[in-house]
Amino acid sequence: MKRILTIQDLSCVGRCSLTVALPILSAMGISCSVLPTAVLSTHTGFPEPHIRSLTDDIEPICDHLKKIGASFDAILVGYLANPEQAEAVLQVMETFDCPVILDPAMADHGKLYSGITEEHVDAIRDLSSMAEVLIPNVTEAAMLAGVPYQEQTDGQYLRMMLDRLCKVKTKTVVITGTTPSQDTTGFAGIHKEEGMFSYKATRRLNRQHGTGDMFSAVFAGAYVLGHDPMESAELAANFVERVLDNTPETTPFGGNFETELPWLWQQL
Ligand code: PXL
Question: How far is ligand 1, taken at its centre, from the CA of residue 69, in Å?
């Protein structure tokens, strides 16, 4: 059985991060271990969440996991609570020495998430150069590449960001939430050996919190199971489309993904 360690927060209410990665990876037949970066009453899309960062706990948890002989086929990194955590996460990556899939989880729709600072962006930029796969949305890609955010994404803009984000250790970058045209959305990717790939589907009018986290969890699962980056990203996009179709109202409680898990299992 494949094993993934995922490093992201535990938000008690509002589907995102660990509360989506765990069930999704389990439904894909993958053993999912967790290293929580913070406990929040809700994600930061709700007003005034209670937040306890677990910055000082990352290293001792990692040390103990190493001591008991834990090993992983991949590490999936998501939301970090502060820039200092990037250093601790780097040590976890070095300790377990396996492919890292990094979702920068810090911004969307042209804006940083509440509480995320410019120092955080710099720390994630440094960390991202150590990842084998990077999965930013358009806003995060622009911030990491150091270019202005554009709501409409033409091919030249995406190509420029993909080239800038593809560092020495990077094998694949997938930018999610692209807008190939007014009524379509999709992703654009680059694979170092095989070149560019892209995908588009009808744009859904509703938005749901946590769909980026769902995308990266499905992608990570398919990738460790041996699917190539395009197949993994397409499966992830199709899963998110089903979640959106299943959740007509836009609320911060997140997309109804639970009923789509049997479909996900059937695709593998
Ligand atoms: O879905 C991204 C995410 C993850 N974790 C926390 C968040 C957000 C986005 O707002 O606040 C805590």
Answer: 31
Displacement of CA 86 from its chain's centroid (Å): 15
Q: Helix 55-67 and helix 84-96: axis angle, to 10°?
A: 10
pLDDT computed for residue 256 by the predictor: 97
- Cβ 14 under 6 angstroms from ligand 1: no
Predicted pLDDT of residue 152: 94
Tell me which of 17, 82, 140 to substitute to probe ligand 1's pocket, judged by most ligand atoms within 8 Å of the beta carbon: 17
43 lines ligand 1 (CB under 6 A): yes
Specify the ligand 1 atom closest to the Cα of 42: 12
> Is the C-beta atom of 9 inside 6 A of ligand 1?
yes
pLDDT given at position 168:
87
| 57, 144, 93, 27 alpha-carbon torsion, rounded to 10° | 90
List C-alpha distances in Å: 235 to 72, 77, 242: 22, 19, 11
Question: What's the CA gap between 31 and 42, in Å, rounded?
Answer: 25
Domains of the chain: 3-250 (3.40.1190.20)
In the chain (268 residues long), the average pLDDT of successive 10-residue segments reads: 98 98 98 98 97 98 98 98 98 98 97 97 97 98 97 96 95 97 96 95 93 98 98 98 94 96 97
